[in-house]
Amino acid sequence: xxxxxxxxxxxxPLPDRxxxxxxxxLKEACDFRDYMRKRHSVRVFDPRPIPEAIIAxxxxxxxxxxxxxxxxxxxxxxxxxxxxxxxxxxAAEEEERAFYSGGAGDEWLAALEPIGxxxxxxxxxxxxxLIVVFAQRYGVTQEGxxxxxxxxxxxxxxxxxxxxxxxxxAGLVCLCHTPNPMKFLGPLCGRPAQEKPVMILPxxxxxxxxxxxxxxxxxxxxxxxxxxxxxx
Length: 232
Hints:
alpha+beta, NADH Oxidase, two-stranded antiparallel ribbon, 7 strands
């Protein structure tokens, strides 16, 4: 974390060692790969409540992510208040109507058609929790001095990936929702001006009628996403 005082490098012995044999590592990597293939973005949620402790534990996991200079430039606003969720939905749907009525180009809309998205966003109110992800563009000390954060998009992206993985590990489902613009989320969540909202994650159990687009099951093969340069 950032400190206004002089902080010097102090090496510590590696506090946790989780290394395994090659065989065990391969097994666990394959098991994890197969489990993550069961992760799906869901738009139909069961409205039954989720204990706050589960959400907090997942956000704590996200907070363990690496970040530029260890400044941890993120904040996660967890919302279960129905009135706040209703306000977010109303604002998001207003932007979505503008998007689908001409704000987006034909190419973008054609790309979205197989996903089945539209103007209506009922998941923003039926999901028991909304997690708004904020990126801290710069920091401010208690004395009011501004300081720079580093690799903010990369750091927040890593932390959000950890959060989505933690939610899946807990058996929950979520959806990456990015209304544009999202400036209303900062004041609504009481966040300072230096924090930019980047994503809303509706979170909960999948509803009994939950579906996924067939196209979402089509993933690029390994050969298209991996290059290997072997030792000779």
